[in-house]
Design goal:
By secondary structure, the protein is mostly beta strands. Among the domains are: 174 residues, YVTN repeat-like/Quinoprotein amine dehydrogenase (Methylamine Dehydrogenase, Chain H, 7 Propeller), CATH 2.130.10; 163 residues. It is built from three helices and 41 strands. The strands form ten sheets. Strands 13, 14, 15, 16 and 17 form a five-stranded antiparallel β-sheet that branches. It starts with a helix and ends in a 7-residue tail after the last helix.
């Protein structure tokens, strides 16, 4: 919530000149942020690591809320990264031989429509009290950090790079002097990065890497190409071999690949492969030869740009976890799966997974709403939602007394609540009201009656709700010509007319105007896009896949109405 208050303050500051801003900033220098809520959920957790010899100590990396630490198994959490130049975290790794040393890679490794870029790799020598920037700032997104257990000065960093641009600072990087210098040891081209990197638990010189060619634009996402591939090294990255159909993998270019070694038998490796024919593959010789285990579309490569993680039980090489919007488990080496975490209960969209190497019944997962902790191998979960790492896309305020704050959150809907309360107990969580679903974006009070609030979610879904009564209206503009497909951005533009309280504007490829608060709409502009046929086809394909995912998800889970 620090970021919410800071955002509100910034709205005031940007209205004046640079000189005026400096004067205002001086007045605010002693102002401290306060947490006002909502506290009904947390936010996207991207990485989890635990001190194995003292599992009360847990570190979490969040998509845009920094690094959090507990020393009491989650009874309380403290932020340990707030003073650093970025709060966008892709990976966290604890040096188990000396748990005071913690590494953090910044920038998310799962390039969804809204991606949080990073500022390099950081190292703490005092269990998170202080941090030092150790380079790789141009990589932008570091998805994985691996520490050599035999030589902790040797660290590997897997960087996907910036999905929105081509640049050479991506791939696998290695240091042998504790981060003072880095060498790029695996690189294919300037639009391909390393999307997964795993180390043989019995031989730290054997690593397997997924190189992934990908590119995101406002209208499309491309996964796969000549820069993709599965690579293996047995000499710590001096030499790499690209694996192909001769080794049992599918033919053609790959997309993203999820990888996992079995700790109890490191000859067993699994690969979840995005290709022309997606499939789960298995190796029983440490990754040199592969065989197809499962190509059932129900279980393999579910939105691989966002979910392509698999994990193996440390004491059972045939128990495999498939981690995506929900979680499945296989007891027969991936031949069949059953649902472990459905959409209900624990928040969906799972991005981080940790299994205790000493007690595989103890697992921690990170999702879009916080973390889940189990001590009985998934039969029962504790959903810990105390970490205030929710992602507000936009915040807004009304002119009520006391005034209300409202905004949309990533995968947690849109919310409305008071900035302060005139009671001794302060702001309670039940003072906050849900005013919309989906990925919430702009929220805007009705200029005449602030009990009504407009809110929108992905793909141009827009509604208005009376937060006092619960009455709701869906007011998305519709094209008069049924053959015309409106193209809304993931986060579409919404505005209140400053001169007419009943007029609002909303944007697809056209600007729409409503003079009756969304009951009727009129297109007031021509198509303001380039209207390129290739871009439109790509957009429609991407939207179709995304809408299909949400239709399937919404049949089982009602968070995104």
């Amino acid at each position: 919530m620090k970021k919410l208050i800071a955002a509100v303050i910034s709205l005031v500051l940007i209205s004046g000149s640079t000189h005026a801003q400096k004067a205002l900033l001086a007045q605010f220098k002693n102002l401290k942020p306060r947490n006002i809520g909502p506290a009904g959920m947390s936010g996207r957790i991207t990485s989890v690591d635990v001190v194995v010899d003292n599992p009360n100590i847990i570190y979490l990396g969040s998509a845009s809320g920094g690094v959090w630490k507990t020393e009491n198994s989650g009874n309380s959490w403290a932020p340990v990264f707030d003073d650093q130049p970025t709060q966008n975290i892709g990976s966290v790794a604890v040096q188990q031989s000396n748990p005071n040393i913690v590494w953090v890679g910044t920038g998310e490794g799962n390039p969804r429509n809204s991606l949080n870029l990073g500022e390099g790799i950081f190292k703490s020598m005092d269990a998170g009290k202080t941090w030092k920037m150790m380079g790789l700032e141009k990589t932008k997104n570091i998805h994985r950090i691996i520490i050599d257990p035999a030589n902790p000065n040797t660290i590997y960093a897997a960087a996907i790079g910036n999905p929105f641009a081509s640049h050479p600072e991506r791939g696998v990087f290695k240091t042998t002097d504790g981060g003072e210098t880095w060498n790029k040891i695996l690189y294919t081209n300037d639009s391909s990065g390393c999307a997964e990197l795993v180390m043989d638990p019995s031989n730290p010189n054997r690593l397997i890497a997924c190189m992934w060619q990908h590119r995101r634009t406002p209208w499309d996402f491309k996964s796969g190409g000549t820069g993709s591939g599965l690579y293996i090294t047995i000499d710590g990255g001096k030499n790499w071999k690209k694996l192909s159909k001769e080794e049992g993998l599918p033919d053609g270019n790959f997309g993203r690949i999820g990888l996992a070694f079995a700790s109890n038998d490191s000859r067993r490796v699994y690969a979840m492969v995005e290709a022309t024919k997606n499939g789960l593959y298995k190796s029983d010789d440490g990754g040199m030869k592969w065989e197809l285990v499962n190509s059932d579309a129900r279980w393999v490569t579910n939105r691989p740009f966002y979910f392509q993680d698999i994990r193996v039980d440390p004491k059972n090489e045939n128990r495999l976890y498939n981690i995506h919007d929900q979680v499945e488990v296989s007891e027969d080496g991936g031949k069949t799966f059953s649902t472990l975490i459905p959409y209900s209960g624990i928040h969906p969209d799972h991005h981080a997974w940790w299994i205790s190497p000493k007690d595989p019944n103890f697992m921690i997962e990170g999702n879009d709403g916080g973390i889940g902790i189990t001590h009985d191998r998934g039969k029962n979960w504790t959903f810990d939602e105390k970490i205030p790492a929710g992602q507000f896309y936009h915040v807004n305020v009304d002119n009520e007394i006391p005034y209300n704050v409202m905004g949309g959150m990533q995968d947690n809907g849109s919310w409305h609540g008071p900035a302060y309360a005139w009671i001794n107990s302060g702001i309670r969580n039940y003072f906050w009201n849900n005013i919309g679903g989906g990925d919430g974006f702009d929220a805007m009070p009705d200029a005449e009656d602030a009990s009504w609030v407009y809110s929108q979610s992905q793909g141009g879904s827009i509604g208005k709700r009376n937060w006092k009564t619960g009455e709701s209206w869906f007011i998305k503009p519709q094209a008069l010509d049924p053959s015309l497909k409106l193209r809304f951005n993931w986060n579409s533009a919404l505005a209140q007319d400053p001169f007419d309280k009943r007029t609002i504007y909303f944007g697809s490829q056209f600007v729409y105007k409503s003079t009756d608060k969304g009951i009727t709409w009129e297109a007031i502009s021509p198509d303001l896009t380039t209207n390129g046929s290739a871009k439109i086809a790509a957009y429609q394909n991407t939207r179709g896949a995304h809408d299909g995912y949400y239709r399937r998800r919404n049949t089982l889970y009602d968070r995104n109405p």
